[in-house]
Amino acid sequence: MSDQPATPIQAFEPPYYAVVFTTVRTQNQSGYSETNDRMEELVKDVPGYLGMDHAQTPGGLGITVGYFRDADALRQWRTNAEHRAAQQRGRDDWYESYTLHVAKVERSHGFTRPTA
């Protein structure tokens, strides 16, 4: 995850897909950061990948929302061999629990306060 200022992903012209991945991690996080960084780089190569947002609550709930232009882009990411291996490692080592929600976005808009 980046140390850059918090900025949400822009609103895109619908329809597109949002993948909401919520997690609670285990105490064992050995190798997690490196794998997470690799997944963030790898997903950028998927045609139709639009971006992602991350949030972490003080209580330990992690939320990542990935945005994909179409079902083909989402399928390519879901079936990527390196991503599949990272998913298995997550189940084996890093996640106490997680949920995954996939939604087709039908409406999207945004706001940015003008700078003074």
Automatic annotation (TrEMBL):
Residues 16-88 form the ABM domain. It comes from the Bacteria. This is Antibiotic biosynthesis monooxygenase family protein. Transmembrane segments: none annotated. It holds the Pfam family ABM. GO terms for molecular function: monooxygenase activity. Keywords: Monooxygenase, Oxidoreductase.
